[in-house]
DNA sequence: CAGCGATTTGGGAACGCTCCCATCCAACCT
DNA sequence: AGGTTGGATGGGAGCGTTCCCAAATCGCTG
């Protein structure tokens, strides 16, 4: 009885078998599986019972073959090697992402793509229908990939505002500007009047926005000394920027660094220069990363809702998958100043 | 001509079209695509040219349907919520992984699976042939998932030695014991004689192995004071463990912490107690994480080759995919002591 | 009770590929 | 020269779905 035919190794039940078990046709069984409404309650129940009894699960390959969909979305991490910047985010964003995805039948595919060759591969994946949509977490804002994918007709969603935003690609980002503004204003309210900032690279939106937030906070304020030094989000750059600032204005009493590693670097430079934090100089970072919870003194930092960003990213893509013509506005999530010891 | 039939929207070329273009049969074209040797040089060239000309790429769904393989492997991150421990590793391991995978036709699927329901989903994925194999990066060593997957007949590979190792599941791990031993021996060689350790949780192999490394290093050494305090890999636990150790032996002159966050916590406690690092007390951490490069003083730490671990992990799985009966020994990768300022 | 629209159902025809078997042909052996 | 061998090739038969159209059934209405 069991296992007549030339059954393959995998004794996985097919829709046909479900249909036989339920005494209906393959077509009807398919309708039940796909939640079509045109099925009599009687047949519905019979098929459902059969499915349960046999432990039927649709064969994704067969389904994809005919529907021309893959029910898979791709997350591309387009990082230029070991940019430390990506790290703190990554795990958390992925977590949010997969949380959101888990309530859908969508699978998550992951690809690291730094080289141009890998970028090509991503495009190929899209063109060949291996994935239905692409999410991109990219570090350089001028990446041409999103535009290319869009041109290839695939839904795309981004983490981080693209520097050259054509407005075509929906993205989710933290409200970098207002986060930076809040941090700077906080310093001002604490009575600090010589407030410096260490910026990120100017080819990244996050760096630019945080700088404008700093500027906006101090705009129109009288009696405030402003100082700007450039960094690249890395710790070493923060340390040397801090030394530079200290040389320029030995009496500065506050620093807003556009990233936590830079803030940590600043902390070191201040310590080496004999300044006490926060007594002499207050320091605020950005990201509220693991790092902020481990420096000495603990770092006051602007927190981004990375997990929520991940969820939103998935949401943005899913919406487009459902309605390919949906025009989506960017999603800007609020940041929060987390007070610790350094300011 | 072009696009007779009821051609679908996606004008993707099929193998049939390649065959026509190359003036051979579908069968021959397939043989070329799959690298079969039984093809005449002439046909080989014709088909290759046609493939290039048409931009043909095999349809994975169709292929899977008949081969019953998915050419997809799954990475399951089985973490209990926000265990910070996972973070430093994650990105780096994934990078190594996908590097190794990029030279194969294998796709990488990612799933976060903390809850039991999600674990079930993983098993289903395997049973239904959606993935050909599973890699697991798990934080609790007593996870039953690997055994279950193995029972379901799927190749499995792990990062981190499972606590209850049946010997059945191949894994890759850093050489925790000898890393800890090297760190401890280094402290000893520096003339330290009151050497404490802050351990990890005892339900994790990494924690246990690092403790035995510490013990091994000091075994038989005379005139050395040993002190052990328990932590959980987290920064807070490191800080309080350090206080406890200081209370027990105010004169201790070195600490080996089984994780960087704990070392950072220890640094704080030492600083609060007025001890200078490394002058009064030397501190060594484990992981050589981002954190170690940002503390003050910079943390001397035991580095794990996380990226290589990722590559090896993939390799372990691929080997099994090629030869299902391959019996694989665990892969233990060497660690390295990275000297910075704290010791 | 015939007639008719609406609802539900059945099953053929792809989807694009691999597998396998039959066929073909050239080279080689006796 | 006939027979044999073996490599190269062609193409049919699925793989398990979904889609769609035709057929069956049902419930009313006139």
TrEMBL record, chains A, B:
Going by the entry's taxonomy, the superkingdom of the source organism is recorded as Bacteria
In Pfam terms, one family for this protein is Peripla_BP_3
Record carries keyword Signal: no
Q: Which SUPFAM superfamilies match?
A: lambda repressor-like DNA-binding domains, Periplasmic binding protein-like I
Question: Which residues does the UniProt record annotate as the domain HTH lacI-type?
Answer: 13-67
Molecular function per GO = DNA binding
Print the keywords alphabetically.
DNA-binding, Transcription, Transcription regulation
InterPro entries, sorted: HTH_LacI, LacI/GalR-like_sensor, Lambda_DNA-bd_dom_sf, Peripla_BP_I
Provide the protein name. LacI family DNA-binding transcriptional regulator
Q: List the top taxonomic levels of the source.
A: Bacteria, Bacillati, Actinomycetota, Actinomycetes, Pseudonocardiales
């Amino acid at each position: 009885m069991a296992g007549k035919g030339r059954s393959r190794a995998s004794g996985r039940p097919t829709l046909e078998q479900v249909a036989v078990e339920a005494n209906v046709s393959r077509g009807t069984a398919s309708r039940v599986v796909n939640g079509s409404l045109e099925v009599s309650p009687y047949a519905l129940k019979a098929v459902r019972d059969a499915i349960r009894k046999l432990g039927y699960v649709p064969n994704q390959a067969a389904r994809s073959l005919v529907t021309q969909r893959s029910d898979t979305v791709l997350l591309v991490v387009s990082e230029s090697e070991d940019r430390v910047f990506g790290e703190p985010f990554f795990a958390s964003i992925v977590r949010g992402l997969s949380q959101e995805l888990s309530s859908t039948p969508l699978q998550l595919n992951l690809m690291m793509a730094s080289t141009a060759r890998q970028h090509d591969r991503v495009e190929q994946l899209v063109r060949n229908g291996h994935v239905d949509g692409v999410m991109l977490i990219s570090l350089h804002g001028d990446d041409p990939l999103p535009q290319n994918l869009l041109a290839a007709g695939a839904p795309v969603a981004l983490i981080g505002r693209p520097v050259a935003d054509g407005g075509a690609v929906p993205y989710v980002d933290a409200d970098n500007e207002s986060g930076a503004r809040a941090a700077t204003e906080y310093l001002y309210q604490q009575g600090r009047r010589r407030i410096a900032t260490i910026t990120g690279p100017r080819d990244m939106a996050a760096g630019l926005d945080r700088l404008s937030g700093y500027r906006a906070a101090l705009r129109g304020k009288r009696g405030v000394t402003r100082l700007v030094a450039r960094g690249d989000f890395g710790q070493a750059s923060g340390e040397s920027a801090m030394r530079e600032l200290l040389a320029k204005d030995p009496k500065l009493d506050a620093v807003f660094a556009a990233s936590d590693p830079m803030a940590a670097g600043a902390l070191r430079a201040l310590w080496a220069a004999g300044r006490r934090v926060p007594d002499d100089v207050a320091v605020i970072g950005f990201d509220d990363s693991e790092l902020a919870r481990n420096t000495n003194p603990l770092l006051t930092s602007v927190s981004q809702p990375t997990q929520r960003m991940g969820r939103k990213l998935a949401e943005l893509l899913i919406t487009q998958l459902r309605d390919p013509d949906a025009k989506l506005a960017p999603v800007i999530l609020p940041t929060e100043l987390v007070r610790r010891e350094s300011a």
